């Protein structure tokens, strides 16, 4: 046991360390934004948020072909495989596409993280999801209060139903009818979209007002552009709630285009020491991407790693295995990667109207043994999905030329008649109608499914020192085959010409695409089973390191089948409560 003199000296040394911040948060997705807000409320003016992407004010998301082509993430030092057009170009764009073994992942870079491009759905998974992989303190009953508070902050509610014809979403009715034909249950889903502050009396479409946290939003304009960044700020992204309050009310410092690089624990003298375990705080390093990748650093009493499943796992692996600053992290780091059963497919050119270019990107869910009559091996949910109008123009433009040849000839003939014979201009209007009346985009359908995969992917560092994923897709064929069978029934029911899984799923590629990467820093009761503690007093803390936390999708011990935003938010609220000692409320 240390003597009183030794304890007094250690306390004096600890107090002499001049910390720049009470907390540094790395990443601004759901976990990072929630913790920035909650910690800044506890320590106003003493919290730093590092976000690698840019801010996106209202109207700033790219839409032109040129701007979208340049909206991808590419850092030259990472030397990733990229198309030639961007391979040699430094780019800090919104979309970060990662290519791995048998799986590709799409993640976001920007202030608000994945909330900038997600599909808005707030859906709690059933209790059956929380099996023995989930510690008792992280199961449904324990998380219920945190689901409730995050749902209220994010403004989740179903799309409004009214007599206003502008609120009619045709594809919602189509999916509901298909569910009925299958003997399945379809329901409107809670979505984090702004329809005004009064849920009972939605604000008229396109009208702006301040939300309950003081940020200006627009009542949803039904443009189907949610997944590309909402230019009207109708999506309840994190920069309009948690982050808005953190910055404007609690004086959190937010640094964008700041890429977290290294976390080093300090000893009692404030020096970096790989044998230290965090009781004296940390030095956090980041690159200032706005200024030539200049390295910056700060001292903090505690650190919350919230860079997403891929980013958080990669950062901690680099600290453990390359920088050697956190050598004591569990060897479970990187295990239990899950794609959350994501599977995207298309039903093309059906005989029933779908109009997938209108409305919020998702409105309903059809349950296939996930929420009811649970069947772990085949459980998934089918959600309607939309795509923007400009993509519909592209779809029509790539149709085989012969299908439009007659209409084209008629259009040219009528245009010639207009000028040579003086025909009324109305005939030209009819001719353009003939040219554009093709319904390929209007009757094509996007099927978005999520399910219970086995969560047995493995993340590791490649030889260049960056994250790599091995995905055993064959182990999940039972789930994928069930989804494909449903898609073919949807094709037959609509009288469509073809059902197409995402093209890279076709032989010989057999690659999945996920937008819901999970796992790698799983919660557990011991470092032999996971990376982060599920004990109530240290919830989310990295085993062996005091004051070092993870708060994002990397915590999840398994797939949840449902859109994971609700569960990530609930877990992150729980992490923040453990750090601050403050029970969260929706008042922020």
Give the overall average pLDDT. 90
Low-pLDDT stretches: 400-412, 422-436
Helix content: 25-40%
So what's the CATH class? Alpha Beta
Short description:
The chain is of the alpha/beta class and 588 residues long.
Characterization of the model:
Helix content is 27%, strand content 19%. The protein has 588 residues and is an alpha/beta fold. The chain has one domain (21-392, 432-580): 3-Layer(bba) Sandwich (FAD/NAD(P)-binding domain). The strands form seven sheets. Strands 1, 2, 10, 11, 12, 13 and 24 form a seven-stranded mixed beta sheet that branches. Mean pLDDT is 90; it is low at 400-412 and 422-436. GO terms for molecular function: cholesterol oxidase activity; flavin adenine dinucleotide binding; steroid Delta-isomerase activity. Its cofactor is FAD. Residues 513-571 form the Glucose-methanol-choline oxidoreductase C-terminal domain.
């Amino acid at each position: 046991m240390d003597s009183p003199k030794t304890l007094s000296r250690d306390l004096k040394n600890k107090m002499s360390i001049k910390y720049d911040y009470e907390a540094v948060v790395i990443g601004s997705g759901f976990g990072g934004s929630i913790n920035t807000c909650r910690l800044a409320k506890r320590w106003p003016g003493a919290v730093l948020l590092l976000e690698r992407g840019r801010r996106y004010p209202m109207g700033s998301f790219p839409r032109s072909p040129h701007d979208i082509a340049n909206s991808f993430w590419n850092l030259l030092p990472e030397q990733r495989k990229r198309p030639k057009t961007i391979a040699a170009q430094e780019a800090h764009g919104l979309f970060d596409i990662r290519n791995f073994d048998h799986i590709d992942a799409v993640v976001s870079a920007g202030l608000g993280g994945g909330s900038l491009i997600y599909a808005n759905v707030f859906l709690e998974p059933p209790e059956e999801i929380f099996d023995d992989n989930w510690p008792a303190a992280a199961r449904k009953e324990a998380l219920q209060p945190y689901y409730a508070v995050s749902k209220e902050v994010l403004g989740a509610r179903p799309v409004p139903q009214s007599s206003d014809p502008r609120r009619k979403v045709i594809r919602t009715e189509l999916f509901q009818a298909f569910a009925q034909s299958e003997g399945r249950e379809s329901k409107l889903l809670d979505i984090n979209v702004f329809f005004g502050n009064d849920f009972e009396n939605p604000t008229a479409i396109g009208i702006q007002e301040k939300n309950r946290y003081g940020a200006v939003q627009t009542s949803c304009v039904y443009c189907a552009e949610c997944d590309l960044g909402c230019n009207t700020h109708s999506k309840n992204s994190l920069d309009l709630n948690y982050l808005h309050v953190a910055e404007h009310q609690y004086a959190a410092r937010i640094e964008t285009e700041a890429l977290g690089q290294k976390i080093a624990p300090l000893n009692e003298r404030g020096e970096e020491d790989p044998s230290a375990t965090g009781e004296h705080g940390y030095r956090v390093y980041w690159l200032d991407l706005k200024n030539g990748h200049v390295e910056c650093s700060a001292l903090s009493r505690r650190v919350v790693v919230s860079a997403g499943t891929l980013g958080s796992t990669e950062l901690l692996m680099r600290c453990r295995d390359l920088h050697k600053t956190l050598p004591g992290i569990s060897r479970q780091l990187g295990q239990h990667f899950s794609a959350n059963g994501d599977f995207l497919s298309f039903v093309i050119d059906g005989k029933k109207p779908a109009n997938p270019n209108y409305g919020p990107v998702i409105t309903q869910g059809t349950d296939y043994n996930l929420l009811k009559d649970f069947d772990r091996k085949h459980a998934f949910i089918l959600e309607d999905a939309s795509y923007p109008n400009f993509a519909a123009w592209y779809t029509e433009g790539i149709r085989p030329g012969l299908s439009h040849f007659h209409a084209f000839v008629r259009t040219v003939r009528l245009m010639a008649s207009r000028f040579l014979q003086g025909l009324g201009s109305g005939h030209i209007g009819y001719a353009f109608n003939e040219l554009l009346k093709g319904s390929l985009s209007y009757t094509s359908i996007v099927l978005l499914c999520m399910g219970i995969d086995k969560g047995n992917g493995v993340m590791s560092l490649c030889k260049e020192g960056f994250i790599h994923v091995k995905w055993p897709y064959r182990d999940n064929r039972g789930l994928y085959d069930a989804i494909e069978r449903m898609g073919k029934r949807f094709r037959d029911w609509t009288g469509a010409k073809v059902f197409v899984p995402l093209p890279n799923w076709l032989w010989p590629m057999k690659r999945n695409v996920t937008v819901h990467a999970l796992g790698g820093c799983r919660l557990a009761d011991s470092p032999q089973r996971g990376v982060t503690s599920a004990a109530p007093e240290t919830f989310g803390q990295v085993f062996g390191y005091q004051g070092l936390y993870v708060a994002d999708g990397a915590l999840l011990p398994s797939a949840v089948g449902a859109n994971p935003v609700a569960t990530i938010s609930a877990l992150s609220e729980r992490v923040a409560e453990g750090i601050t000692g403050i029970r969260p409320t929706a008042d922020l």
